[in-house]
Amino acid sequence: MLEWITNTISSLGYVGIALLMFVENLFPPIPSELIMPLAGFTARANPDKLNFFGVFFAGVVGSVAGALVWYYPGKFLGEQRLKRWADQYGKWLTISSKDITKAKHWFDSQGSKAVLIGRLVPGVRTLISVPAGISNMPLLPFLFYTTLGSAAWVGLLTYSGYVLGSQYELVDKYLAPVSKIVLGSLVLAFVVWVLKRRRKKTRH
């Protein structure tokens, strides 16, 4: 996979970076934790071919475009149809109806800011667009929070690769444990929210 990512960036430049980030949002197994650090390293090693800000902009554009692809099925197909589709075909994208349910519950607990926070969490960042669409979140706020979250994520990865240079792969190595901690914290926060709601219902 690394060779394919490298060849795409080398041959297509900014278009290749945007394309990779677009595909990464559709197929979670393709890691942005490798795409953007490698692009950042390439900008440092070959400044005549790529520059930091161009790499950053291309990554954000691709990421937001990919998020829209998940937003519209949620908006027009609805939760139940998407769940049935995920159970039938989701294995090709490594998603299931349970993943959609979890994302929907988390979105309901966090509101619009879930889109912003979700774009910063691997494993959540792809699917957070689905409940936003299901909940009929207006397009402009969705684009605003998605762009803001994507810019923060892409900027962090690009800058890390630019600074680390040829050791850009360390970004994925050290970010993976941190991502798990963040994801675990979000799950814990969601569980606490559910328990609080149940207590309130019991009191009433």
From TrEMBL:
Query: Where do the VTT domain residues begin and end?
Result: 30-162
Determine the domain of life of the protein's source. Bacteria
Q: Enumerate the transmembrane spans.
A: 12-30, 50-72, 142-162, 174-195
The answer to keyword Methyltransferase applying to this record is: no
Give the way it sits in the membrane.
Answer: Multi-pass membrane protein
A single Pfam family it belongs to is: VTT_dom
GO cellular component terms, semicolon-separated: plasma membrane
Q: Which UniProt keywords apply?
A: Cell membrane, Membrane, Transmembrane, Transmembrane helix
Cellular compartment(s): Cell membrane
* PANTHER family found in the cross-reference section: ALKALINE PHOSPHATASE LIKE PROTEIN, UNDECAPRENYL PHOSPHATE TRANSPORTER A
Q: Which family does it belong to?
A: Belongs to the DedA family.
Q: What is this protein called?
A: VTT domain-containing protein
Q: What is the lineage of its organism?
A: Bacteria, Bacillati, Cyanobacteriota, Cyanophyceae, Nostocales
